[in-house]
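Hey, can you fold this one?
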Amino acid sequence: MSEQIIRYVSAREIPGSNPGRPAGNIAVIIDDLGERHFLSAANYRSQEHEMIRALGPWKEVRFLTPLEIHPADFRILNPEQRMLADEQIREELDRLAKSLGIGS
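Sure. Predicted structure:
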């Protein structure tokens, strides 16, 4: 099974990035063949993650930095937190970014 890496990158590193808009990419998946797959929040959420973990076809996942994630995309990625207000989501993403040493 290939090593799986998750890292955060700026929006300019993800073609078609358009946070908060339908079909705006928030992630790029690099598979074990080196091919890139660009995903919106809905596309990422709908992936069969358990099967992916079992088969290990993803070598790397690159996400927008937490400060660039739009609250609408956050709600799609985390439906259990969809009731949070935009400001609460931004505060949570800011905390995450600080813990990762990214941005503000």
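Residues 27 and 63 are 4 Å apart (CA to CA). Let me know if you want another pass with a different chain boundary.
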